[in-house]
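Researcher: Please predict.
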Amino acid sequence: MSLGPLPLAAVPFAHGIGGAKDLPVSPELAIAGAVAALVVSFTVLAVAWREPRYDAATSGRPAPGRLTRIVDSAAWAVLWRVVGMLLLAYTAMTAVLGKDLVTNPLFGIFYVWWWVGLVPASLLFGPVWKAISPVRTIHLAIARVSRSDPERGMYDYPEKLGHWPAAVGLFAFVWMELVYPHAVELGPVRLWCAVYLAVMIVGGALFGSRFFEYADPFEVYSSLVGRLSVWGRRDGLLVLRSPLANLDTVPVRRGLVAVVAVLFGSTAFDSFKDSVPWVTRVQDSRWPAFLLDNLGLLGFCLVVGLVFSLGCVLTGVGDDLRHRELPNLFAHSVVPIIVGYIFAHYLTYLVEVGQQTLIEASDPFGTGSNWFGTADLGVNYWLSYHPTFLASLKVLCVVLGHVVGVIAAHDRAVRILPRRHQLTGQLPLLLAMVAFTVGGLYLLFAA
């Protein structure tokens, strides 16, 4: 239901799991069951999975020839570039010409379709942001006009930077969403988008298109999630792989742990900031709420990164593998956990606010128009009306994500660890996974 033409600053753009009322199941039972599933999974893997099963050089079977020809065609690439530019044009129009009201679809596009919707889209189709990215299209157009190679820039991208710029960009987004007090006012969102576009275009000019692969926060985000799809590439050929085999192909780069820590830590903080303990602490504190929220967001991201890194560096290794290399080598195993927790945390938000955004998209200027024929639709609240099903689905998402993460970590461990450490060496990382499971489910119920 539309909130009407109210000043946007007066209306909270609430989101998240909707609080404990969504979860009419026993939290103790859910947490105990999740930990048991994790431990049992690890035990079964230790007995039955003693050799690595995934190899990026051989895994996957070629996709059907007709499909490959379509996906690899220039027309297909141009089609999705056009889609991306049309989405950019529409979003820019609502940002510049739209009213500063809660009914402006810009906010749903920015916080729901772009941020949350990117996850299911990438799971289904692979790295969709790379295909539709307007900044890649703009960069390509600039290169064509200047008759330069879009792959090459003025400088080589520094390997030591890795994904650190993407981690910073992701943190800037979640800070905007979760901490900044004016996050649902038109001006700040408009400015954020403008800065993002400017940084990406300048980065592409300096370092070529490789910059987007390493530093574009949304391309890195989408590409990581897309590794859990069935679509992959082997020597440039489109192949069908199991999601676990595809996940094993995540490139090991510096800053990868920082990326997953921001994605997981920010989602966890989003749950915790609505919980009774945090709200009470903020209300009773002499410190400003804005400062506490900043410290809380940063603290959650740091704790996730430190717990995971500690679990990795305590893993037994041989003389040919340094402890400090392990966190980035195992960071891919956190991606299923992130995906599971994002679905658990944002599911109702994506479905219900996503529908509301579609309705409002037909009337971008609040004039009563119906551009796309969706203005008269209603929001389906079926999920909210079935709390037991919703609770079970959310717990299942969290547990399944952690189990898949344990499998991914185990396969990597039996490949890189010496045989005498392949079981006991994984125990610190398993403890870190258990901590994430307990913490994630606790926050899911505490919000």
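Model: Confidence is low (pLDDT under 50) at residues 1-22.
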